[in-house]
Amino acid sequence: MTINLDKYIRDKAEIINRALDECLGGRENPLRPIMDYSVLSEGKRFRPILVFAAMESLGGDFIAALPAACAVEIVHCFSLVHDDLPCMDNDDYRRGRLSTHRKFGEAEALLAGDALMMQAFEILSRPSCNAWATPEKKIEVIFELSAASGAKGMTGGQYLELIKSSAEVDELLLAEVHRLKTGASIRCAVRIGGILGGASPQDLDALTEYGESIGLLFQIVDDILDAEKDDETISFSSFYGVAEARGKASEAAERAREALARFSGKKELLIQIIDFLLKRKR
């Protein structure tokens, strides 16, 4: 049966949004309104959908991956709150509305971001939620998400972008910034779905390469769509030009397809995601 990717994304996003609302804690939490604003907006939910897609490709039930998928998305939202701060990217808008610090204040956004990070790991480690994974798999998931979020992942990539000017960028640094800042979280989402789906070492290796490739593809296309911006962001479109960046995107898509050729699970959904990213528009 052919999968309708648009419907799949819509349906899964609705499930994720409901679960995120439940995951953010009780209303007695004084930071809850700021956390809600930062998480429950019109996000793409791309990373948690990747968790589902990887798990389902191995024959697993996506519902069992819901806590992990929510944790991945909450960490992503934390990163957006902090990236928008004046000391970082200094963005006034996010997802079509005021960024969190512009809406609530800089200190408030900083604290809400901290709370979101901790909330994600609380979700993953709750003793009362052992039904979704064995303790061993939960530890693996916590390791994957923490590694992808720290100095060797998202945070490290943001730091490299912060300290380097566009004049200092070469091809290797450009690739490293985005491998860490964006690619690590996307690879992590795919790997978590694979782990929860019981992937063999060979299949997990294939999913890892697929995740790395679509992470690069996602970032290049994002940069192309942002090419009209006049800013100092380190981007593929500013470094290579739009035409060459499109070629790099096609190369990343092809590497993702090659990785799936070594994957023994169901491939249709994962292949459709490659095509979706390659043709993505705002």
What's a concise summary of this model?
Helices cover 68% and strands 1% of the residues.
Order of helices and strands: HHHHEEHHHHHHHHH
* Integer-rounded radius of gyration: 18 Å
Assign the structural class, choosing from mainly alpha, mainly beta, alpha/beta, alpha+beta, or little secondary structure.
mainly alpha
Overall number of strands: 2
How does this model look, in words?
This protein is an all-alpha fold and 282 residues long. The chain has a single domain, classed as Farnesyl Diphosphate Synthase (Orthogonal Bundle). Helices cover 68% and strands 1% of the residues. The protein has 13 helices and 2 strands. The chain has helices spanning 5-23, 32-39, 46-57, 66-83, 100-104, 106-125, 135-149, 154-163, 171-196, 201-225, 236-240, 242-260, 268-278; strands at 93-94, 97-98. Strand 1 and strand 2 form a beta hairpin. The longest helix has 26 residues, at 171-196. The mean pLDDT is 92.
List the helices and strands and how they pair.
Elements (H helix, E strand, L loop, with lengths): L4 H19 L8 H8 L6 H12 L8 H18 L9 E2 L2 E2 L1 H5 L1 H20 L9 H15 L4 H10 L7 H26 L4 H25 L10 H5 L1 H19 L7 H11 L4
Antiparallel strand pairs: 1-2
Helix pairs in contact: 1-3, 1-4, 2-6, 3-4, 3-9, 4-6, 4-9, 7-9, 8-9, 9-10, 10-12, 12-13
